[in-house]
Specification:
The chain is α/β, with parallel strands linked by helices. The chain has a domain at 32-107: Rossmann fold, CATH 3.40.50. It has two helices and five strands, in the order αβαββββ. The protein has helices spanning 2-24, 46-59, and strands spanning 35-41, 65-67, 75-79, 87-94, 101-107. A five-stranded mixed sheet has the order 2-1-3-4-5. β4 (87-94) and β5 (101-107) form a beta hairpin. 9% of the residues are buried.
């Protein structure tokens, strides 16, 4: 009898917490502001242009980010090296004074 009571209380608490988490983390709510992101490249190349266009197309379907012009953006994702060089180096910078700066490096193996 005690075991059934303990299990029913545990199940109720678990269910209530899951429903609360589902409501709290609902990212499709209209009151959640999307982060405005601008994507650019320091070195223009054909593959970098294709990469940027693909990323911008994917941002249109994102629930958390939106593509913005350089003047309206909150963050700047700048691709520093070309894909043809065998690596991609990109920096994510906050355009606010006290913001985040993160460098992302991806190197591809060739041959």
């Amino acid at each position: 009898m005690k075991m059934k009571l303990i299990l029913s209380i545990a199940f109720s608490i678990l269910t209530a917490s899951m429903l609360y988490a589902l409501e709290f983390y609902d990212v499709s709510r209209p009151d959640i502001a999307k982060i405005k992101l601008n994507i650019s490249a320091k070195n223009e190349s054909t593959l970098n242009t294709v990469l940027i266009q693909t990323m911008e197309r994917q941002l249109k379907h994102s629930l958390l980010f939106e593509n913005a012009s350089a003047a309206d953006a909150e963050y700047l994702l700048e691709i520093e090296k070309t894909i043809e060089s065998g690596s991609i180096v990109s920096t994510l910078k906050s355009l606010q004074k006290a913001g985040l700066s993160l460098c992302i490096r991806v190197k591809s193996k060739t041959g």
